[in-house]
Specification:
alpha+beta, 7-stranded mixed sheet, BirA Bifunctional Protein, domain 2
Amino acid sequence: MQAAPTNNIIGKPFVQLTSVDSTNNYAMGRVQKGLATHGEAYFAWEQTKGKGQREKQWLSTRGENIILSIVLDTSAFFLHKQFFLSMAAALSARDLFNKYTTNKALIKWPNDIYFGDRKAGGILLENIIQGDAWRFAVVSRQRSRTASARPAAANAEPLLRAAVGVDPVPRARDRCPSARCSTR
């Protein structure tokens, strides 16, 4: 087993993309080209061909969802422990949602976040495995602000600030001034 990466910070660097087919595709492409490092986070204001499990799509209109993919160097971990990363991603997403909403978020294992009986977000975990070594994982989170998550929509701005470390309101208005993309 190798030593853990020296950069243990998640979200550094933090890259904002105006529009992308999929943050997951973008992150995986950088990993495969050898350009990504542990902890890099890719946030998109718009996603045109987002990925879900079993080839489902997660489409996102500009300013309506939180779309984030994080690159993790998993080379120090055993290959048979992959589900522990999935559990950690789901638990951290649920905990972050619960911190900023009045409703209690629940996990539908292994990858869906629910508010009440409605799906409010999802987690996609893709791995790069070479031989018997787990090299990288890309953890993607999508948080819906659409009809399926209306109870939490009023609290989405602080959630976005916490998730990505930026104030989304000025940037979202600059990129999408129409009422359809309103952040309020």
